[in-house]
Specification:
The structure holds two protein chains of two kinds. Chain A is mainly α. Chain A is 33% helix and 5% strand. The two termini of chain A are 21 Å apart. The chains are: A mainly alpha, B mainly alpha. Chains A and B meet through helix 3 of A and strand 3 of B.
Chain lengths: 149, 259
C-alpha cells in the first residue's frame, strides 16, 4: 500500500500524455494526475453491461477478485474484494486502473486491459488487440463506480 | 505489508544464496497433492481407484511387446523395468550427448522407439507414449527427484528459470507470479499450487485422461493468453528441467491425480 501511494504521488507531479504510437486501433487517452478524466468513448458506460462483463470468465476480473456477486461461486482471492471500490476510487482513477494498472503499482499482477503492445509471446488469437475495447472499459468503470458501501 | 515481506525475503536470500527473491525455500515446498481435496488424494493413494494405474498397466504390456523392423520389445534390451528403470524418471530431463541438450523422458522413449526398435514414431500425448512414460516413471515412485544435478545441464536449468520468471501473454503474467508468490490462493475456484512436477504423467480429472507435464505447462501458457511452445520445443524442455531441479529431493508420485 505504502509503495503505491508513493507511486501515485509521483504521477500527480506531472501530466502524462500517452500517444500510443504504433497502436493506431487504440483510442488515444490522456493521463492527468493519477487518472484519466475523459471517457475513452466520449460517452458514459452502461452499468448493467459493466456488471455482466465483470462477471464473465473471459473478462478475467473474477479470476483474481471477489465482489458482491452472490450468484458466482468461483471468485478469486489474489486481489482485493471489489465491494466499495466506488468509495475508494474516483471514476478517473478507476479508468486508469483498468487501462494500465501498472501506473499504480509497477509490480502489479493486474493486467493492463487497454494495451496492445510490448507483450512477450502473445497468443496468435490475441496479438495486436487489447484485452478489452474502449466501450467495455467504460461499461466496467460505470459499474465499479456504483460499488459503494 | 510489502516492506516486512521484503525483509523476510532478504533474510532468506542472505542464508540461502542459491535462492532468488520470491523462490520457495526447500523446507516450504509442497507437492500439488497437498492442495487437492481429500477425495482426490484418496483416489491417488489407492492403486485400484487411481485411473492413472490403467495407463501404467497398458505401459507394462507395451514394454513386453515386440514392434518395428528390429522386432524388439523394450524388455529385450532393458529386461525387467522394476530394476532397470528404478529411479530413471527422477533424473529426467537428462542430457543427451548426441544432441548436446536435455531431453525429456518421453523424448528418450521416442528415440528408443525410432533408433532401437525402428518402429513408427509415437506422437506426443498419444495413448501409447503416455502409457510407456507412466510405466517407466512409476518405477520411480517414492524416489527423490535429482534431475538437473548433471553439471552439463546448468545452462539449461538457468534458461528454464528465466523463462519461469518472465512475464508473457496478453495477461502479462509470469509463472512465478502465481506459483511462487501466490500459491495457496485461488484463481477463480482453483487452488494455485507451487507447480511441483512430482507426479507426471498425471491423471487430470478435467482432462479425463493422462497427460504430460508439457501438456500442463502449455495449458498454463494458454491461460495467460501466451502462444504455447510446441511439444518438444527446447524452451518447454528447459522449463520442465527447471521445475524438476526446483523440486530436487521431493519424492516422485507417478501417476498423480489432479483436478
Amino acid at each position: 500500500m505504502a509503495r503505491s501511494k508513493v507511486y501515485i504521488a509521483v504521477l500527480l507531479a506531472s501530466v502524462i500524455h500517452v500517444a500510443n504510437a504504433g497502436a493506431d486501433e487504440l483510442v488515444p487517452y490522456e493521463i492527468t494526475g493519477d487518472g484519466i478524466t475523459t471517457s475513452l468513448t466520449g460517452a458514459p458506460g452502461d452499468v448493467a453491461r459493466g456488471r455482466t462483463l465483470v462477471l464473465a470468465r473471459t473478462t478475467t476480473c473474477i479470476l483474481c477478485h471477489s465482489g458482491p456477486f452472490p450468484e458466482t461461486r468461483f471468485q478469486g482471492d489474489l486481489a482485493p474484494d471489489l465491494t466499495g471500490a466506488g468509495n475508494r476510487w474516483t471514476v478517473s482513477q478507476l479508468r486508469l486502473r483498468l487501462v494500465d494498472a501498472s501506473r499504480f503499482n509497477p509490480d502489479t499482477i493486474m493486467p493492463s486491459y487497454y494495451r496492445n503492445k510490448g507483450f512477450v509471446r502473445v497468443g496468435r488469437n490475441y496479438a495486436g488487440n487489447p484485452i478489452l475495447s474502449a466501450a467495455e472499459i467504460e461499461d466496467i468503470v460505470a459499474y465499479l463506480a456504483t460499488l459503494r458501501d | 505489508m510489502i516492506w516486512w515481506r521484503a525483509i523476510a525475503v532478504a533474510a532468506l536470500v542472505a542464508t540461502t544464496p542459491a535462492l532468488l527473491a520470491g523462490e520457495i525455500p526447500p523446507d516450504a515446498r509442497r507437492s500439488g497433492y497437498s492442495f487437492v481435496s481429500p477425495d482426490t488424494r484418496a483416489m491417488q493413494d489407492d492403486d485400484t481407484s487411481n485411473p492413472g494405474m490403467l495407463f501404467v498397466l497398458d505401459g507394462e504390456a507395451l514394454w513386453g511387446k515386440k514392434v518395428g523392423s528390429a522386432d524388439k520389445a523394450c524388455a529385450d534390451c532393458h529386461g525387467d523395468a522394476r530394476s532397470s528403470m528404478k529411479g530413471v524418471a527422477a533424473r529426467y530431463p537428462a542430457f543427451e550427448k548426441a544432441l548436446g541438450r536435455p531431453i525429456t523422458l518421453d523424448q528418450r522413449i521416442k528415440l528408443c522407439r525410432a533408433n532401437h526398435q525402428q518402429a513408427s514414431p509415437l506422437p506426443y500425448e498419444s495413448r501409447d507414449i503416455l502409457a510407456l512414460s507412466a510405466f517407466v516413471a512409476h518405477q520411480s515412485r517414492g524416489f527423490p527427484i535429482t534431475a538437473g544435478d548433471d553439471p552439463q545441464l546448468s545452462a539449461f536449468v538457468a534458461q528454464g528459470r528465466s523463462l519461469f520468471m518472465q512475464r508473457e501473454g496478453q495477461l502479462n503474467l509470469a509463472c512465478t507470479n502465481c506459483h511462487d508468490d501466490n500459491f495457496d490462493k485461488h484463481l477463480a475456484g482453483s487452488p494455485i499450487t507451487q507447480a511441483q512436477p512430482t507426479g507426471y504423467p498425471i491423471y487430470r480429472l478435467e482432462w479425463q485422461t493422462l497427460g504430460s507435464l508439457e501438456r500442463r505447462l502449455r495449458s498454463c501458457m494458454t491461460g495467460v493468453r501466451a502462444q504455447a511452445y510446441d511439444y518438444g520445443a527446447p524452451e518447454l524442455v528447459a522449463l520442465e528441467l527447471y521445475l524438476m531441479s526446483r523440486a530436487r529431493g521431493m519424492p516422485m508420485e507417478t501417476p498423480a491425480v489432479r483436478p
